Amino acid sequence: MRSSVSLSRRAVLGALSTALGAGALSALSACGATAGPAQGGGEKEITQPVTLEYWPHWGGASREPAYAKLTEAFTADNPKITVNTTPYGHNLEKLVSNVVAGTPPDVAIIRSSGQALAIKSAIQALDDRIARAKLFKKSDYADAQWDQYTWKGKIYAVPAMENGPRGALVYNKKLFVEAGADPNKPPKTVDELHKLHERITKEDGGQITRLGFDPWDAMSLEGFLEFWGEGMFGARWYDAKAVKLNLNSPEMVQAVEEFTSFRIRTGWDKVATFRQTYGTWTGKTSGLTSQTQAMQINGYWTPGEERIFPDPGNDVASNLAYTWVPTQKGDRKVQLIGGWAACIPAGVKQMDAAFRFIEWMTTAKCNQILLDEFGFLNGNKTAAKELKYDHVPNLKFYLDSLTQADKVVQPINVPIWSDLDKGYRAMLDNVGQSKKAARAALDELQTQLQQLLDDTVKGA
Length: 460
Prior knowledge:
Elements: H1 9-20, E1 50-55, H2 64-77, E2 81-85, H3 92-101, E3 107-110, H4 114-119, H5 127-132, H6 143-147, E4 150-151, E5 154-155, E6 158-165, E7 168-172, H7 173-178, H8 190-200, E8 202-204, E9 207-210, H9 218-222, H10 224-233, E10 238-239, E11 244-245, H11 250-266, H12 268-277, H13 287-290, E12 295-298, H14 302-308, H15 316-319, E13 320-323, E14 334-343, H16 351-360, H17 364-374, H18 381-384, H19 395-404, E15 407-409, H20 417-432, H21 438-459
Parallel strand pairs: 1-2, 1-3, 14-15
Antiparallel strand pairs: 3-14, 4-5, 6-14, 7-12, 7-13, 8-9, 10-11
Helix pairs in contact: 1-3, 2-17, 10-11, 11-20, 20-21
């Protein structure tokens, strides 16, 4: 491990280029960056008042009371430290711009962008502090949770805020019954998922009034490579040791064709019109929450959020059931683990206080606040044993799933995560709108992204 953080203006601009694409650099041409202090081995006593700048991903007025409870509880345990919270929506341009300008937040929450930021020293390795942590052990987390934020053997972030099992088929039992489907027999195969989707979907005057399933929703889209590619169809789309992509394999072609067939057969424009009224994920106006959509692939935060978000009188939480994500043959139980993590950007001058806050976010006390106020957890196995979740009973499926799964899929861990994420989403849109065939679209994506990956690794 290096004894100090080597951070040049060129290096950080390179990291931004890797994470966001070359078009994001012009606004930063006049900026400079300064190196941060060396990573220490263990926390020092905080004797003087400290104010931390904390940048989580999630924002909005509905989150403000939850953040207030979170930071007040931390300060109650650490009276010398107060926390200012500024949600930044995982805007990497903003994060790296502040690093370049010498005004980084003390703690930022990132997802899958750790390698891109670590390559150019925009964030700091935390191995020494993790080894000496007092409030958690490395073994409290699965290896995959650490691997997601590892580059060349060093760890650059700690699983925090939302991090854990990310997949289940969430389905509405009431809508199953109304469509004449057995709520005790959810789909196990992709073909069964298709048939139930078509059985449940209803139209009136050419407009969808009830939707069975939309693969562009929630973790189905966000986890396309993991769930559809590897989990459902067994695609090996990335070799991390060789740093080689394999996005155009026969298995990936099949995954894309099955994924896009839902909207192709239902009608792209019809689903798009439905989405103008009923959103994705679990917000107040989402199809799942409003009970106008019967099925969704989503993560362990869903039971908690469907307790918090619905309007009074909405009985959606009591109508939802949770089961395994369908696969090609229906003979495997597949789960994905990972999520968001807390990093310390380069240039931070309050390292001890910053890591104290990160450590605290792994505790059972913090986890209970996260579940009660946000609906999610940070994935600490030991802390989960102390968790009170009687008010969110369906969380048990997710907590049990990691030991019951036949396969736990590794999360995306690639230096060009942002470009990969944008690339596969655009590819799916093109195929779903019948602008390109799956094979041709994947061939093009493979060539483009492998070249970018090769250039990025050479630059490192």
